Amino acid sequence: MERLDEFQKVIGYTFNNPDLLFEALSHSSFANESRHRYRSNERLEFLGDSVLSIVVSDYIFEHCRDIPEGELTKTRATLVCEKALYQFGEEIDLGSYIMLGKGEELAGGRERPSIIADAFEAVIAAIYLDGGMEPARRHILRFLPNDIQGAVAKAYDDYKTILQEIIQKNPEEHVEYKLVGETGPDHNKQFTVRVMLNSNVIGEGTAHSKKSAEQMAAHEALRLMGWKRE
User: Fold this and answer.
1) What is the C-alpha separation between 83 and 124, in angstroms, rounded?
2) How far apart are CA 190 and CA 165, in angstroms?
3) pTM reported for the whole predicted model
4) Is-catalytic flag, 118?
5) Are 124 and 140 in contact (CB under 8 A)?
6) Per residue in 31-43, pLDDT tens?
7) Which of 23, 49, 71, 214 is catalytic?
């Protein structure tokens, strides 16, 4: 209970029902090894994923009004992916509060991104069930970057290089990026770029800078080619 009290201070939320937080921090390995019939955080993770998606979708819909629908989907995906949730969890040292079974503990589960990301979602659900949507929203928004589009562009920052390395395996192939659209006032322009393989369009991206638009176009091309980050 002492650790639960400490974690509540870390996240700035006091539970009316601390059992919800206990469940959110209970990994399946802990629940399975316990003599008590504790529930793991897997069901809460399921609910937390939905609450997270709603809050992030609402936020970027309101604050990124110039981004087209396709880019909104990519932006949300970047903010709720396992890598992002792991980083959010690291900000509050979530791994040190998760309850693990002995085997998982010895295997380094406390630093495993998937475990931390799942627990992060479970904590969101626990807050939602305990206090409603508003405290859950406040908890989530504290982790979102102020510069949403900058953060998304950074996530795409190596896709052009990856695409080029793939294409270079076939010397006869040539990649070119073409600016095909420019909209909005000078202080808030949107650029649309297409990436061409020889004369064929293989990807398109829209962003507030040509560089970011090129990265997003390269990412789209890689996705269509079936590439996955290792």
Assistant:
1) 17
2) 28
3) 0.68
4) no
5) yes
6) 888 777 789 999 9
7) 49
